[in-house]
Amino acid sequence: MSEKQTNYVEDLLTQLQNELSRDVLSEEINALLRKCSLNLVTVATLPDMDIKPLLATIKHLLTSNISYDTLNYDYLLDIVDKLVPMVAFDDVLEIYGVDDLIEALNSGIDPLTVAACKVIEHCQPKGLFATSNIIDILLDILFDEKVGNDKVTESIEKALEKLSSDELIRRRLFDNNLPFLMNVKSRMETISFVRLIDFLAVEFPFINGPEFKAALFCFTKDEVLKSVDDILVFVELVNYFTKLLVDIRNQDKYWALKNVKKTLPMFAQLFEDTENYPDIRTFSKNRLLQLFAEISRIDEDEFSLFKAIDKDFLKIGSETRLVNEWLQLIDPHYLIRNHKALVKDYFHISGYSMEILRNLAADEECFNAIRDKFDSEIILKLPYLEQMQLVETLTRFGYSSKFLLSELPKVMAGLIGEGSADAIVDLETTHYRNSALRNLLDIGEKNLSVWYEPLVREYSVAINGKNYSKNGETKIADDYIA
């Protein structure tokens, strides 16, 4: 950030302050707002400017009884969003006090509500409003079915997410407001219920074990079954449980699993009961498959949870039209331990098997079970894009990279041989080839042995258009090519 740029932005904001203070707004006001917004991202502070008068002017415009049809309020609110973090929050409160924020939230005027949320989300400390009823009002608006403006609900969700790292805010949300949230949940009104699901998905990463309210964050089998009456709600629940499982694994929150896993078999049961629930596969097949994929990655007790679901409902391998999906999505370690024959018999090299290969290759034991399927002649008959997709997949892991280098020299020649780059006609192929070259170079000169020099040459040509090989022109490792 240069002093010149900072001065330029301050001059723009001074001009904006003057233009917004006029009795009649200029026809160019929106262009100026947009220009200010774009340039504000280039600075972190504005040391030589008092921003409070501009924020006060914007507040006056938002609270005025006069509505300016030509004024783009989205641009105006974006300015607020960018300016508030640049000012000490005590100074912000001089303009947008607690009473002002409450009045704005209760006004029913959408731009004013959004502006209040933008101020609230930047409050410091984050727990500042935990003892006021601002948080309660935000929840009231968020779960009001009559509020249909997405910008309002999104701004509330964002504000709550920004503040929820604070324990006092979480206490206000999930202790003080637990009866209110439980009431929203029990009503299962489509709009408010879907918003609740989204809200809980955002909040769960902040929750620790003692704060976890299973009655709120978990859904019973009966609630899942009832949601089928509204397929939108059902899909949202599927997405919610999928994200929950990802967070449980990534954040090591297995303390929540004992409550969550009670409901998971219900989704598999509905998925398989196509006679009574035909809409489930029609409208939510892909979402459910993603959920099952996440369940399969819960490896507690030798995948006992998913093993039971598979045995009782999914019966992987018994329905041939889903074999591709299972091999693409289900944890490869589970597959090789429980469906080894399916893995070995079904996988083969083709342009249609790339997604399957990416999944199966991620587990060494699984990869070893299919390595005899890699025939150089078959691979080299693939279109060059598909060759590069296959090679790039093999370079993602040490064991498969070693296999590529030692067992598939002709395929390596296709990656780095003379004229190989000329086969590239699109950016996608370039991406896969460059990624493969980079992955291989990452394993080091010692492991690459005679392949090191050709790889350095090809990667430098691919990235820089020049040959930086230290020994001049290099050749393919002919001794390795059968």
From TrEMBL:
InterPro entries: ARM-type_fold, HSM3_C, HSM3_N. SUPFAM superfamilies: ARM repeat. Pfam families: HSM3_C, HSM3_N. Keywords: Chaperone, Cytoplasm, DNA damage, DNA repair. One of its GO terms (cellular component) is cytoplasm. The keyword DNA repair applies. One of its GO terms (biological process) is DNA repair. Gene3D superfamilies: 1.25.10.50, 1.25.40.580. It comes from the Eukaryota. Belongs to the proteasome subunit S5B/HSM3 family. Involved in DNA mismatch repair in slow-growing cells. Acts as a chaperone during the assembly of the 26S proteasome, specifically of the base subcomplex of the 19S regulatory complex (RC). This is DNA mismatch repair protein HSM3. The gene is YBR272C.
